[in-house]
Amino acid sequence: MSLAFVDGGFAEPVFGSQRAFRALMDAFARPGSIADLAGLAGPPRPMSSAAGAILLALADNDTPVFFETDMPDAQAWVGFHTGAPVTGAAPSARFVHLADDSDTTAWSRFAVGTAEYPDRSATLLLPVASLRGGHRLSLSGPGIETLSDIAPQGLPKGFADVMAANRAGFPLGFDLVLVSGSEALALPRTTRIEEA
Amino acid sequence: MTLPAYNFAYLDEQTKRMIRRAILKGIAIPGYQVPFASREMPMPYGWGTGGVQVTAAILGPDDVLKVIDQGADDTTNAVSIRAFFAKTANVATTTKTADATIIQTRHRIPEERLQAHQTLVFQVPIPEPLRFLEPRETETRVMHGLEEYGLVHVKLYEDIAQHGHIATTYAYPVKVEGRYVMDPSPIPKFDNPKLDRSPALQLFGAGREKRIYALPPFTQVTSLDFEDHPFTVQTFNRPCALCNATGVYMDEVVTDDRGGRMFVCSDTDHCETRQAEGHAGPGLPQLGEHASSEQETTR
Question: Nearest CA to CA, how far is A143 from chain B (Å)?
Answer without folding.
Answer: 4
